[in-house]
Design goal:
Two copies of one chain form a homodimer. Chain A is built from twelve helices and ten strands. By secondary structure, chain A is α+β, with helices and mostly antiparallel strands. The structure holds a DNA duplex. Chains A, B: It comes from Cohnella silvisoli.
DNA sequence: CGTTAGCACTCCTTTTAAGCGAGTGCTAAT
DNA sequence: ATTAGCACTCGCTTAAAAGGAGTGCTAACG
């Protein structure tokens, strides 16, 4: 349990360090105004806080910087969430104003906005189709051997891919298949599509058409494989602004990680609804052990759909970022519900 | 006009500098084996080459490095295109083997491949729809007020966006409009869609439906706005590997530029078919004045469709990159023609 | 007893100086 | 025409010195 004074001092140190990126000394805290004790007193408290593991010293005779544990305490107990400035609010308001006609637009724009407002890197995961239902399925022939399969979800989400039509399947057959699929699958949640495809559709299909196994597995692939969400990244170069990454090698390993979509999705794996803060080594990923990741989920009809997140140095403006993510995730949810209500 | 010996020396200097990134001295050239003259002789020639503007000296008593003009001469007259190693060829072969079912897959994969094989940054522009024709147009209602418009090109390219249905337009009306559009627009090249929409469609539409101006402009937007090609980027972090960008600020300004899709498209603006090399300040963009950009167009039925490119330091392995781009652009063209023949 | 002034000490950072060495340009010899 | 020899330049590395921010401890103060 920390005393009130210790908490004030810890708060002051974290705030100062977030601004300056340099170890904070007792003198500078004493001069801040909000902590009215002398440097000597503050030094004593700082020694205690260091013993508790909340602060560390880069070397003897340097100021203190917050440890991971220190940031954690700050985030859990001290941070103030007033962080949205006038400009920020104005930009966020215009977020609604811009006409967006597909979700990629919304999500991509949100990513850009986040990185611009924070000067950190933003990572945004597009909506998962898990809880959405199939609205429409269609095959459009391109030529004799290939067709475009188009899948529309009830959220307006569209996926498509080109498939090769197996030999021995006529145009008529295709039309029948499409009708059958629309009959049976419309309104079915995507995560159940696969089983319905196997149980009901397979039987019907064998009646009409030969070679049905082939086309069935093709459709299965087409419909089920595309469920992985898309990742949007913005402001990766902002990482280079941070003094902690002036070392090219550190910067490089982070940027390399950011380029691997797979890894980013791993990073977002366990996202409980609401806002989550992962500080430094609390992140599983080696490359971002000196970073903090703050994520917020956006949801539609109570179901959490996707995630927006900010990656920055552990020395991050937690207050500002948290309130921004909170605000924007609700905005996105609202925007999506307006579309599809 | 350069003498044979001068060309050998220039070639040796460029080759050496590309490998080492350090100013090349007369002594080290003399020891290479392929230029059998003494350092003193080589020094004389180097002084001449500097006077011609092909070499420069970072400071007195340093070795020489190629100037922009020097690289230009190297690329135009000296470079050897044998650059594809065994591994490279093997990886390129597997490019065809992977199953790709939409063009984004091909293009994205090509970008990854290029950056991995070269350790530079690759930029790839997806196919322009300019010369392609409309294959199918469809509106799929999502709910009472919105629908998804889907546009399929004869190349299998699919675009979609959500539109809001204006008041006073019924489902029947929509169906009529879709039929009309498919009748009139199928087979029409995209660049002519707009005018056809205004001339023929507008007349017909006024007969059936009120409020037609509104929906017409909506459709026009939908169909014409989506023609801008998509940009794929890979290996941006490779820039940080190059010693010339160990300076964080230089690296940052380049990475920032790479994040702006608009700028990248500008960069590719004038792309005559075939391979183009732009060295250093030959690039219009300030941020990449210390970079070289090599681009190759890939085409389909004689019409150049899109561009693949490599961005690296001026000290780039021109031979290897040029042959690689040449090879891959033809591969992509072949792959696309196989789909749609 | 909590708080604060004073002071010696630590250690990082910046500055200055010296020496090294790769490379050049010129001259004279081959 | 080519090459060996040599004095000279200048960036880079290493070493030493100066500077300074900040601490921990002790003793004095209210």
């Amino acid at each position: 349990m920390l005393s009130e004074r210790q908490r004030m001092i810890l708060n002051a140190i974290v705030d100062d360090y977030i601004r300056s990126a340099e170890p904070v000394g007792s003198r500078s805290i004493s001069k801040r105004g909000d902590v009215t004790f002398s440097p000597a007193t503050i030094r004593n408290e700082m020694a205690d806080l260091e013993e508790l593991g909340l602060l560390e010293q880069p070397h003897t005779s340097a100021g203190r910087i917050p440890s991971i544990k220190g940031y954690r305490y700050y985030v859990d107990h001290l941070v103030t969430l007033d962080g949205l400035g006038d400009q920020d609010v104005r930009k966020l308001r215009t977020f609604f104003a811009e006409k967006m006609n597909h979700w990629e637009g919304v999500i991509g724009h949100a990513a850009t906005l986040l990185s611009q407002l924070t000067n950190y890197t933003s990572i945004v995961l597009g909506p998962e189709m898990f809880s959405t239902t199939l609205k429409h399925f269609q095959l459009i022939p391109i030529n004799d051997v290939s067709a475009v399969a188009i899948i529309v979800a009830n959220t307006g989400h569209v996926e498509h891919r080109t498939i090769t039509i197996p030999d021995g399947i006529s145009m008529d057959d295709m039309a029948k298949i499409v009708n059958l699929l629309n009959d049976k699958l419309t309104g079915i949640p995507f995560h159940r599509v696969k089983s319905v495809l196997h149980s009901e559709i397979a039987k019907e299909l064998t009646r009409y058409i030969d070679h049905c196994e082939e086309i069935l597995s093709l459709l299965e692939q087409t419909i089920t494989e595309e469920q992985e969400p898309k990742v949007f990244l913005s402001g990766a170069s902002n990482m280079l602004t941070q003094p902690e990454f002036k070392d090219i090698d550190k910067a490089k390993s982070i940027l390399e990680m950011l380029e691997e979509t797979q890894l980013l999705m791993q990073l977002f794996q366990s996202n409980p609804s609401g806002i989550q803060v992962r500080i430094g080594t609390e992140n599983a990923m080696e490359a971002i052990n000196q970073c903090s990741l703050i994520t917020a989920t956006y949801s539609y009809e109570g179901q959490s759909l996707g995630t927006i997140g900010i990656l920055g140095p552990t020395r991050m403006e937690y207050g500002k970022v948290i309130s921004l993510l909170d605000y924007l995730s609700k905005d996105i949810a609202l925007l999506m519900s307006r579309w599809h209500k």
